[in-house]
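Quick check before the chapter quiz. The format below is the same one you will see on the exam, so make sure you can read both the input and the output lines.
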Amino acid sequence: MYGERVHVMDHPLVAHKLTIMRDKNTSVKDFRELVSEIGMLITYEATRDLPLTTKHIETPLCEADMPTLAGKKFAVVPILRAGLGLVDGVLRMVPSARVGHIGMYRDEETLIPHVYFCKMPKDIADRDIIIVDPMLATGGSAVEAIDEMKKLGCRNIKLMVLVAAPEGIKAVTEAHPDVDIYAGAVDSHLNERGYIVPGLGDAGDRIFGTK
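Here is the expected output.
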């Protein structure tokens, strides 16, 4: 439906955990834990193409050449602040990953996002990148973040979100057709305030308890 670059999780655990997150009565503690858990599950899919090599080991029974990651450099880049909630889940799956940070503010009149903070590992251009943010709504922040990573020389970039709106998917795929999108679910639409419906509200506020 969205093309081969868009991967929507078709998994009972992801669907179940997202339903708990969507419930307005779910506590901050549970919401935060679920963000991390779903992040782990989506990372499992998003890293499916990591290259393997072999390593000679000795099992309790014999010597054998067995598969191991080829040591490809990898970085996770959260879009501040809500994206921070997904970092732990990614790092639990790929503990050696480096972490960059990108912060944005939205111009209240034009609604255009602008980068105000960008701190990356020095060798970021040599790394595979997963940009993480819980929500892909209008797509403005994601497009800007991908723009920024490409300016730094990054070539292999993926975007990982919990919930996406069709409008956000369209914006990212049109601006960056070379970027794969991994989403826990695709919801119906955006409302007049730019919130995803049915969505799960303001992910940042719900992760950090600031409402």
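If your answer matched, good. The longest helix spans residues 28-46.
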